[in-house]
Amino acid sequence: MARIISLLNQKGGVGKTTTTVNLAAAIANAGNKVLVIDLDPQTHLGLHFGIDETAASVYDLLMDESVTAKDAVVNARKNIDLITSEVDLAAAESELASKTDRHDLLAKKLAPILDTYDYILIDCPPSLGLLTINALAVSKELIVPMQTHFLALQGVSRLFETVQMLVGGINPELSVTGIVLCMHEKNTKLAREVVDDLQGFFDASRESDVPWKNCVIFDPAIRRCVKLAEAPSFGQTIFDYEPDCAGAKDYATLAESVIRAHKTADVELVNEHA
CA Rg, the chain, in Å? Predict the structure, then answer.
């Protein structure tokens, strides 16, 4: 059964799509079969892989009962499949509103292919609307890419409130796995203060019954790297474009941390039920 992870931050420009693409590539390089889903109407994820138009997009998958997940999947790289977005997806919020099963349409469509993949990564739009709710309804985990800015702390707090409501209703199995620090400059005073505040918030939540009680700040942070900004214009992941740069090394190590986090959680779960 696939490990389903949504990547979400309602603030744009924080490195969410860059993290989705390069984390997927690093996980695939480790020998895992990965599906990446673009739920963002900006369609940047497909372009990042060098894939523009496909026969069926995630919009078709959600809005057309006859379209299956297999119809929408295209191969992007070795061990990486992709379901692309399109600009029409921006209209899906209002179109989905009239559907009785509007919260779990994506879950129903993905159900037949869950055993095909080890990981499914969902690139969410920078909002907390119906598209994002569909992603969180099918996911077991949430990873939050963010920059170490003061306003980012406010955004994370609001995001966690939404997750708490979802866990109380639509998806009780959803948990926040971790924070990925993007474009990070660890030597600045602001960055250190934001990281300290985040760590203090998570430490204070360890004994509470909240979805982020086991959340970690992933190590390593993703350093600011111009190669990461250049790679999408060539339709390449960082491992295609510049595999020896700092960004590639950071994402490769981040993938190891994400994979290890799941194994650690499994051990803790077994111990709880021993």
Answer: 18
